[in-house]
Design goal:
Blueprint (H helix, E strand, L loop, with lengths): L4 E7 L3 E7 L5 E8 L11 E2 L1 H19 L6 E8 L5 E4 L9 E2 L7 H9 L3 H8 L8 H11 L3 H6 L3 E4 L1 H9 L6 E3 H4 L5 E2 L4 E2 L1 H7 L8 E3 L2 E6 L11 E7 H8 L8 E5 L3 E8 L10 E8 L2 E10 L3 H10 L8 H7 L8 E3 L17 E3 L7 H27 L6 E4 L6 H11 L3 E4 L4 H13 L6 H5 L4 E5 L5 H20 L2
Parallel strand pairs: 1-5, 5-14, 9-12, 15-21, 21-22
Antiparallel strand pairs: 1-2, 2-3, 4-7, 6-8, 10-11, 13-14, 15-16, 16-18, 17-18, 19-20, 22-23
The structure holds SN-glycerol-3-phosphate.
SN-glycerol-3-phosphate (G3P) binds next to helix 9.
Organism: Halobacillus naozhouensis
Subunit structure: Homotetramer and homodimer (in equilibrium).
Protein name: Glycerol kinase
Amino acid sequence: MCETFILSLDQGTTSSRAILFNQKGEIVETGQQEFEQFFPKPGWVEHDANEIWTSVLACVAEVLRKADVEPDQIAGIGITNQRETTVVWDKHTGKPIYKAIVWQSRQTEGICKELREKGHNELFKEKTGLLLDPYFSGTKVKWILDHVEGAREKAEKGDLLFGTMDTWLVYKLSGGKTHITDYSNASRTLLFNIYDLEWDEELLEILDIPKAMLPEVKQSSEVYAKTVDYHFFGHEVPIAGIAGDQQAALFGQACFDKGMAKNTYGTGCFMLMNTGEEGVTSKHGLLTTLAWGVEGKVEYALEGSIFVAGSAIQWLRDGLQLIENAPQSEDFATAVDSTDGVYLVPAFVGLGTPYWDSDARGAVFGLTRGTTKAHFIRATLESLAYQTKDVLDAMIADSGIDVSTLRVDGGAVKNDFLMQFQSDILGVPVERPVVQETTALGAAYLAGLAVGYWKNKEDIARQWRNDHTFADSMEVKKREQLYSGWKKAVAATREFK
Ligand code: G3P
């Protein structure tokens, strides 16, 4: 009999990917396609949902062709996605009525501010574990209903559907038959009560969003639908796992026990700690979120969200054209011994954990006549590590758990300089796994569990392999001195508005 695989669709912020995994949890082949980023106004970020859909199909075609695998060799499909990004489409035509508003986009700050001023912040936090920040989907849905002509009436008549990217892709893959999401994605909408595990009527009323638009919420690992016979799936393949990318990475890193944490360096940077079957309420600017619903129970996580990480490196490459490719940033950073006192705060779309400052914008400090491109690039890389330190400190303060090692993944973990500096600034060893595509791996595991490709979580945990541990080697005094410079830079950035 032919070998079978799990196909993971990783729909990210700047590109879509399709990755085939074998039973050992190894990557067999990858397909990838970037898509356009729209910046209609400062601080706004949008995507074309149809372009995303076709990019996913192109990735599937690419991966199957490169791996020489037939659709009937795919045992199941797992979907993982940039979270919160919001699309609203017409139920009858399947056409989006507006561009997808991306998680990074700040266009709903006005709505959030008004709700905060009315004193709603605590209510939203209590029920959803989130804050009234433009980051989350709820105010994006409201914005679309308020701004697209005729949208609200249509929504009230039940003619519109809302979805995050998981929902949109399942809808398209199933030929428009299935409108669902999973717990992890629902928990990022600002509309879902993470304790009652239901869409919250009171919050929907405050945001004036008709419930009929919302998808049905499912477990993160179960067969939701089968693909219809699009070219690549002449075969009906079960879609069997869904999780938002950060929760999928937590699963892919096998952080199954309470207190285990991972940090993913993607477009943004997201640290999640598994807190087991109980949600922990943060006092330090972290979010409480659903990790997943698996084997009939839900588990929670504490999350620190950094909006700009890998996208700062992309900005060095595409915006400033200081480097030709991301790996070059490491060559420049290691060409100098330090940043020579330069700090870069990449608050391009505001600041997330622990500051939650929507209006802050990026800044550079400490420039001298001697500052070179290398110092500037190094300061950009170091900003990822400092932001992570802000988050880890909040995590330890909230959970009372002393994180003894941090598992890392995502594109930027290939950068040895960054990983070593990360460990030095945290004072904690950083563990980089062999498979660094843990987001896609997590979605594959969720799908594989549902179709019996893997037996259970223990089976999966045994597959985790360490590639390299970066041990911290910086003197405490130096660490404190560097970090206090960062804190001053952040304070000054926030001051300048
Ligand atoms: O919450 C946003 C997050 O899901 C985006 O992830 O990997 O595109 O930085 P990423």
